[in-house]
Design goal:
This is Trigger factor. The protein is of the alpha+beta class. Helices cover 47% and strands 17% of the residues. Helix 1 packs across helix 2 (51-82), helix 6 (305-324) runs antiparallel to helix 7 and helix 6 (305-324) packs across helix 8 (340-363). Residues 449-541 have low confidence and may be disordered.
Length: 541
């Protein structure tokens, strides 16, 4: 096997590898000899099939397998002999004119990691802004949940039902005067204006009173899930058993128990922990920005273009997804396109910081344990269908690059924690507003640096994304399991307002991307679960 370097330009390397035909044929012959005893062929005793017949039967498959193995070994040899640290998977190609019996001409193209002088971990000074959680903030969180827990009380029998009232009704649905299956219910709760029932159903009950009986006519939507009801006109005989009006939820021990907790104090304790966790995340973000800025300030080495491009493509894909969700996707994309150079710069800074943190970690013995790696693999596998999970686990275990990609966010976090421990940290108590203002001030300073060519006014644009370089990449962090009280509140809100689906104030696509650090791990935050439609008259949800 002959290896020669054909390119050495910056971080780019190319090698030409010649694998002699004789070496390939020798390996094929050895493989034929190895498998011959296992081959069965009519007319021959087991293990007595001649090698030439084995080769005739399985030659193509054996040749392909041997060629692949030999090429892989040649790439490994290129790496070892030249002491290369590839930035990404090398591009390996076999000469187009190759055929069995000829020498195999292989080309290996790659980019190598730059030589980095390990940054000193001495002299790092950080300010830790902490936000004490007050009793008022905890009570505000309690009241927010209470506000989401809609409750109703009985109204006077003379009360006419209005928008927002709840009716307890019996109903019987009919098609052409004949009851249809599943079209009957007793003591069904219906909130007027919730949109849970098919169009026209709730509206016709406005003005109804307790004890009233009435028949309404509705048309099922064309996309209704029950095939026999799609687009059909139906009547419903309705008895209004009770009219209820909304009432404020009282914050007391009973309220906490309805959320599945032992007491109101337990609820407050739980919510205090959630608020503290939220502010601790902001504190970490602000500290990490200080740390990354100090690291970036003293290092400006070349980074592998392929790594920068891969990082940029990841950023760009996220931006395109966010733009597609905007009210005017075309305008959102134009806005993003205008900042394309900024996002390329962000990608480069991310890669540089990632390499710096990796170098610091390696030199200081920071590691991701086998147990931690197994947990990462199992967590990632949960994103796949049950029948595909084992295949994913096996893939990660057999592909070093896939394993490295999965390990990177946790490794980076551990390096950051190591640097936090080494740093001289001064603590200062601030309000939540002051902490957020400090984060925004950091964004403004970064945007004002010469490298940032554009700054969008009223936006946390490229600068924030840049500052969050490493904070965003570990966005694979699994969001903490939702606490029982918060989850139950979400479920209650979904039950009470399943059709409301009120969207939060729209962010521009660029701003959303800037907030990736918060959105990504919960990237995947599941929406509050909606109660299934229990009645055929209810909308398909």
């Amino acid at each position: 096997m002959q290896i020669s370097e054909t390119k050495n330009d910056g971080l780019a390397r190319s090698y030409a590898v010649t694998i002699p035909a004789s070496e390939i044929e020798s390996r094929i012959s050895a493989e034929v000899k190895r498998i011959a005893p296992q081959v069965r062929m009519p007319g021959f005793r087991p293990g007595k099939v001649p090698a030439n017949l084995v080769k005739k039967m399985h030659g193509e498959a054996i040749h392909a397998d041997i060629l692949n193995k030999t090429v892989r070994e040649s790439v490994d040899k290129v790496m070892a002999e030249n002491k290369l640290r590839p930035a990404m998977q090398p591009a390996v190609s076999l000469g187009e004119d190759y055929e069995q019996g000829k020498d195999a001409e292989v080309t290996v193209d790659l980019e190598v990691l730059p030589e980095i002088e390990t940054p000193s971990t001495d002299g790092i000074k950080l300010e830790k802004l902490v936000v004490p959680v007050s009793d008022d903030e905890v009570m505000e969180a309690v009241e927010k949940i209470a506000g989401q827990q809609k409750s109703f009380k009985a109204a006077a029998k003379t009360k006419k039902a209005a928008e927002g009232d709840q009716l307890i009704i019996d109903f019987v649905g009919k098609l052409d005067g004949v009851e249809f299956e599943g079209g009957k219910a007793e003591d069904a709760a219906l909130e007027i204006g919730s949109g849970r029932f098919i169009p026209g159903f709730e509206e016709q009950l406005i003005g109804a009173k307790t004890g009233e009986e009435k028949t309404i006519t509705v048309t099922f939507p064309e996309d209704y899930p029950a095939e026999q009801l799609k687009g059909k006109e139906a009547t419903f005989d309705i008895t209004v058993k009770e009219v209820k009006v909304p009432t404020e939820t009282k914050v007391d021990e009973e309220f906490a128990k309805n959320l599945g907790l032992d007491s109101l104090d337990k609820l407050k304790e739980l919510l205090r922990g959630q608020v503290e966790q939220e502010t601790a995340g902001l504190t970490r973000t602000q500290m990490k920005r200080q740390l990354l800025d100090q690291l970036a300030a003293g290092h400006d080495f070349p980074v592998p273009p392929a790594m920068v491009d891969a990082e940029f493509q990841q950023i760009w894909a996220q931006l395109e997804q966010e733009a597609a969700r905007e009210e005017d996707p075309e305008a959102a994309m134009k806005e993003i396109e205008a900042e394309k150079d900024d996002y390329k710069r962000i990608a480069e800074r991310r890669v540089r910081l990632g390499l710096l943190l990796s170098e610091i970690g390696q030199k200081n013995g920071v590691e991701v344990s086998q147990q931690e790696m197994q947990m990462l693999i199992q967590q990632a596998a949960q994103q796949y269908r049950p029948e595909d999970r084992q295949r994913f686990v096996e893939y990660v275990q057999s592909e070093p690059m896939a394993a490295a990609q999965l390990r990177a966010p946790l490794y980076e976090d551990k390096v950051v924690d190591f640097l936090f421990d080494k740093a001289e940290v001064t603590t200062r108590e601030v309000t939540k507003e002051e902490l957020q203002a400090a984060i925004e001030a950091d964004e403004g300073e970064e945007a004002a640096k010469p490298a940032a060519k554009k700054k969008a006014p009223a936006k946390k644009a490229a600068a924030k994304k840049d500052d969050d370089a490493a904070e965003e990449k570990p966005a694979a962090k699994k969001a903490p399991a939702k606490k029982p009280a918060a989850k139950k509140a979400d479920d209650a809100e979904a039950e009470a307002k399943p059709a409301a689906k009120k969207a939060p104030a729209k962010k521009t696509a660029a701003k959303k991307a800037d907030d990736a650090a918060d959105e990504k791990p919960a990237a995947k935050k599941a929406p509050a679960k909606k109660a299934p439609a229990k009645k055929p008259a209810a909308k398909a949800e």
